[in-house]
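Technical note accompanying the year-one report. For the benefit of new consortium partners, we illustrate the data format agreed upon in the data management plan: each record pairs a sequence with a structure-token string. No post-processing was applied to the example shown here.
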Amino acid sequence: MKKLYFLLFAPILSLSAQIEGTWKLAPQAAALGVGPGLGNISWWSNSAGDVTTRACLFDDSIKFEANGNMTHYMNGSTWLEAWQGAPEGCGTPIAPHVGGAATYTYDAAAGTLTVNGLGAHIGLAKVINGSEIASPAAAASSITYDVAISNGGNTLTADINFGPGWWRFVYQRTVPIAVQDYNVTFRVDMSQYAGSLAGGMFVNGTFNGWCGTCNPMTDQGNGSWAVTLPLPPGAIEYKFTIDGWNAQEEFAGGESCTVSSGGFTNRAHTVTSDITLPNVCFASCDACTNDITFAVDMNDYVNGGGSTTAGVFLNGTFNGWCGTCTPMADANGDNVWDVTVPLTAGAIEYKFTVDGWNVSEQFVGGESCTVTNGGFTNRAYTVTTAATIGEVCWESCDDCTTGIEELNNTVTLYPNPVNTIMTVKATDAMQQIRILDLTGKVVATFVGNGLTQEINVESLKAGIYTIQIATAAGNSSKQFVKK
């Protein structure tokens, strides 16, 4: 037997993506297949019996070495077809498809393997890019395959477009790489489950033989349970259960996170890396949500010269501060706007805005309902269950009182509206005064100097402004109108 040598050069990759090693066609049905599209082998594929019938092909091996060499072992016999001028069946390899020196380029990032050299190939010799050759004389000197290495680096799948369709060749390593286990964290939110959890939570699946109580979960608080398991790569099915198998998730089938087989519907996941799975609601593909109602009184804003004609909106961390995607409603025309939003448990930041982001609430920082992060001060709330957050006045942590000057009874402004000089009075000594326009831009700053102070606003353009007053006792935020 003459051994055939191909020279190839490949980049050094992690074990899970290496092409180095010895490969043979997988001894299984559909190791060879052809069809109208990539991955579609509906036209023809080998049967399990073909592994024996075509043993002379399935025992051929290809060895890729780290130094760039490739050796194609045909063991003196391979599968021949009529286009080679021979009866279909096992026989001596026919030139130029008998091996020989060659080069290749393997691009792991692009997922391509290009073999250069007359007659060099993997899979079937007749298949080249764009066609199936009709005679050995038509052999190509370069063939490119789309390749994917999976199953922990132990399976190589090569696809090639030959014009009217695609061929697929599936190879396996002759000496498998030890498969790495990955840490998979399962999480489930039981906060909306009405039954008892006294027996504990468990995860059951194909990876533990649906064993009942062998993989208990840990209560993380706030209704969330979790467990991390080392699992080999591959597809798994699973579900969450209570007290072993005394209670379990039930699915109708067809949900985005499930798969149905043999009359059972379970959650499904393919393990490919360390992962923390989403914290899903029991018997759901989605996170548990709580209906939270927000309400803001815009009367003082309107009385101060503002307009809500373009609408009032809720913006926050839960909607990506999206502008107009969460509009509020004033159903009875009393200028109190509200909206109910389904939110997952946890801390949120938010504020009310007018006309998308054309006007937004402004806070000094330190107010009882706000939090300051990264230079921004927003309202803050922690979602734990369905709730109605108390109605608040625009730019206040409290409900509105009877007038814009009474927004916070520790500070008064007059006259309002104002043309030139405005007087500010406080029950605590003022330390700093800032004036912001409706975009939140600071347009004037003054040093506080007592309980009463006159400030000149003549240079301001006509419009609505927010005045922020810092005192030793706390901060106040009010609106005024410049005529």
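Partners are asked to follow this layout when depositing records. The CA atoms of residues 37 and 165 lie 6 Å apart.
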